[in-house]
UniProtKB/TrEMBL annotation:
A Pfam family reported for this protein in Swiss-Prot or TrEMBL: GST_N
Protein name: glutathione transferase
A single GO molecular function term of this UniProt record: glutathione transferase activity
Keyword Transferase: yes
Family named by the database record: Belongs to the GST superfamily. Tau family.
Its EC number(s): 2.5.1.18
Domain GST N-terminal: 7-86
Taxon lineage: Eukaryota, Viridiplantae, Streptophyta, Embryophyta, Tracheophyta
Class of this enzyme: transferase
Amino acid sequence: MAGSGNSEVKLLGAWASPYVARARIALNLKEVQYEFLEEQFGTKSELLLKSNPIYKKIPVLIHDDKPICESLIIVQYIDEVWVSSGPALMPADAYDRALHRFWAVYIDDKFVPALFGMMRAPTEEAKAESKEQALASLQLLEEAFGKISKGKPFFGGDTIGYLDVALGAFVGWMKAFEEMNGFKLLDDAKTPLLCAWAENFCNNEVVGAVIPETAKLVELAKVMQARFKSAPPAN
């Protein structure tokens, strides 16, 4: 990647994390050179604990020794700092920016818990409930895409934008859960706009270099499921 001047940029993360993928895609789109520091699964490095002492979670972007935490905040920061490099991620219009932020929060508050709830569910009934919640969320996002994209291939219009990054980082995990569970989350009949959007998103060279292979995510998901099943019940 090019165009970050003399500033030093590091990203603490893990290959499978969709939240980390958000930051990596944004950095790549904005052509920012950065060092990716891989955190090992199940552990927290001293640098991570120092950089994010409140939540102790990845991703953390470190720009000239200043840490920025939380994936959506990181994406906005990247767009604002490297404003002259690569495409703008946030819309120019204030109302459109508000819409993008609203739906990004919806993704994290409603869709993501339902998506990963299918993996964490202790019973088949709970798993089915998470599935229905995920499908309902995607239906609303399908409607939102129709209005926000205005007939163009991305939420951001002709190019990938903030909301594309917010949702698109989870496409790899969606495909993994589809393969594991034998059903479609993105369905040509029910969510045709999002199906076309996901294909366009993943076909982007920058995105394709970041989204993990489905088989690797399936393998990791099975390991994580086994851990959830063996964990003692919460009090």
